[in-house]
Amino acid sequence: MRLTCAHIPVQERLAGRAVLSAAGLATRRFEARLVSGCRRTIVLKGQDLAFRLSTLLWFALPLCGCESRQPAGSGALSTGPATSTTEGTPPSRTWSPGVTGTFIDRASHDDLRLVSYNILWNSIFPEVSVAGAVKFARVVQALNPDVLALQEIGLHPEDRGKPNARRWTDRDVVALMNSLLPPPEGATWHACQGGDNVIVSKYPLKLVATDTNPPGERQQAIALVDLPNERFAFDLYVLNNHYKCCGNEANDPQRQQQSDAIVGWLRDARTPGGQIDLPPGTAIAIVGDLNIVGTFKPVETLLTGDISDENRYGPDFPPDWDGTGLVDARPLHNIDGPDQWTWRDDNDRWPPGRLDFIIYSDSVLSVAKQFVLNTTTMRPEELKAAGLERFDVTIDDVGRQYDHLPLVIDFRPAGLPSDKTE
Question: How far apart are CA 197 and CA 218, in angstroms?
Fold first, then answer.
């Protein structure tokens, strides 16, 4: 699929109508005119025609803006107030969570929902994958996260060195989320990026960083989510990561270096002075695709604070505020499990694995609900109620190539009752 357009602002409102000509239909070319007069052209490949044209038009057209972009990792981003939706834009859920009557619902509207999702190199954008974009739209609208940690947003590895290759950014993610889950009038989603990691939040982001100091093996997205005091007794410090892939134990040194750097950074953040100081009692969550295909030691370091390279990253340090370790959430599929894997590809020789993690400070947070979303095993009535389809978490439409699944966790202050299923 090819999308072309003249420059318009991301938030430009759609005119609400698509113009299809008989000649365009014959050539599989469709056009939509915007309020600004920008014309966007879509050329469809044969496989794209399997999707309803109406779905393609409402999703792809509002999101192919070619606006100037803020460089990745240059700080927390908000694009200004999102415009209200108009006729012809995608159907969207409200900013506030709805009720589906399924396991997807929050136990309480006061819970804070964090979702971590490796989305397979920009496939949530219709310019990259119409199928992936439509599936992501249904998933994110059903889950309605307060904070969303995405991995693999950026320059596709296969495009490195290509002069005109596009590098997707946190700005693109904000535009997408403002379209899929429109905020109240005058509000917007907020985002920051480090490497291919993006944190996008309904709430402002502070203390934004793209790396620790000393740095780890690669960049990460780090931010303090400034939660409203009237709803939450804490703010949430998120470290969103995408560790070195593959290689089994051969690449464990790179993964271990990243974990050592994170623990050293948290030691600095939790002790007065140095480069960063978090307010005591700030909730902490380390999330992302940790690619644990070798030993479990990189995760153990995050949990216990046992640093391997103490010469570079300093002494061991229990990372939670009460002097204990952090907790590995270990969510199960659709709450009841029994599966825990978060990556799978039945076309590959590798078995399913738990590569994605949510690790948190249980001195501050308790878990109301947690699960790995697997739409392929949901009952038909659950899918219908949640507005999902069976293969929304797979790359294909037969259930063999999954890539990564989204991890979902609902937090509340420690000490409150939990509905978590162990």
Answer: 11
Angle between helices 130-143 and 53-60 (to 10 degrees): 70
Rg, C-alpha atoms of the chain? 21
Q: pLDDT-based confidence at 31, cuts 50/70/90?
A: very low
* Residue 91 preceded by cis peptide, ω within 30: no
Among all chains, which residue has been given the structure tokens 């007794």?
233
DSSP letters, 198-260, are: EEEESS-EEEEESS-SS--SS--EEEEE---TTT-SS-EEEEEEEPPPS-GGGGHHHHHHHHH
Q: Which two tokens stand for residue 371?
A: 């699960």
Written as one string, the DSSP assignment of 264-276 is HHHHHHHSSSSS-
Q: Which residue from 367, 355, 411 is spatially nearest to 118, judged by alpha carbons?
A: 355
Question: Among residues 182, 188, 214, which one has the least CA distance to residue 201?
Answer: 188
Is cis: bond before 406, omega within 30 of 0?
A: no
| pLDDT value for 96 | 85
pLDDT tens-digit profile of 56-102? Answer: 444 544 444 333 333 334 478 776 665 433 333 345 566 888 899 99
CA distances from 4 to 34, 59, 227 (A): 13, 15, 38
CA distance readout (Å), 401 to 17, 349, 379: 36, 12, 20
Angle between helices 170-180 and 130-143 (to 10 degrees): 60
Cβ-based burial of 183 (10 A; exposed 0-12, middle 13-18, buried ≥19) = middle
Does the pLDDT of residue 40 top 70, yes or no? Answer: no
More confident residue, 338 or 33: 338
pLDDT digits (tens, 9 = 90+) for 233-263: 999 999 999 999 999 999 999 999 999 999 9
Strands 39-43 and 2-4: antiparallel
The DSSP-derived string for 177-192 is HHHHSPPSTT---EEE
CA–CA gap between residue 72 and residue 384 (Å, rounded): 37
Token pair listed for 412: 């509340």
Both tokens of 16, joined, read: 């609400």
**The whole model's pTM is what?**
0.82
